[in-house]
């Protein structure tokens, strides 16, 4: 799992489960640390979970893996915003926003199905 810094906590880093690469800061800071102070091998044995993760993100394998997050996580939102013109919610409140986003996602997925079945891309609206 590739996760942004908003989820960085000792609890999230130590919970059992799948391997998680959680950022410990902004992407630009991670990139700078990986290029200016690269790390090799495992983190020090006495490192707390956040220091261990910071060390892992400074390794070539760690920063290369984390770079994939941007493309995976941000592309659907950029598509909705730029191609479909979905820039704000119409309803107010979390329930209405959740419903509106779910409807948008369903329409998007139906469009993908139709494109796959027909081979013709659907026109973008905006």
UniProtKB/TrEMBL annotation:
Q: Where is the Transposase DDE domain?
A: 53-113
Record's keyword terms, sorted: Plasmid
Low complexity bias located where? 38-47
Sequence segments annotated as region (Disordered): 1-59
Highest taxon of the source?
A: Bacteria
Against InterPro entries, the record matches this protein to: Tnp_DDE_dom (IPR025668)
What is this protein identified as? Transposase DDE domain-containing protein
Q: Which organism is it from?
A: Rhodococcus oxybenzonivorans
The beginning of the lineage is:
Bacteria, Bacillati, Actinomycetota, Actinomycetes, Mycobacteriales
């Amino acid at each position: 799992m590739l996760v942004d810094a908003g989820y960085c906590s000792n609890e999230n880093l130590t919970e059992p489960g799948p391997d998680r690469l959680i950022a410990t800061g902004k992407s630009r800071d991670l990139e700078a640390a990986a290029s200016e102070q690269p790390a090799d091998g495992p983190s020090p044995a006495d490192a707390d979970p956040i220091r261990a993760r910071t060390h892992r993100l400074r390794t070539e394998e760690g920063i290369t893996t984390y770079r994939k997050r941007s493309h995976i996580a941000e592309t659907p939102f950029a598509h909705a915003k730029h191609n479909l013109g979905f820039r704000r919610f119409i309803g107010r409140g979390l329930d209405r926003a959740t419903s509106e986003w779910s409807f948008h996602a369903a329409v998007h997925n139906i469009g993908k199905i139709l494109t796959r079945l027909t081979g013709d891309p659907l026109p973008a609206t905006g």
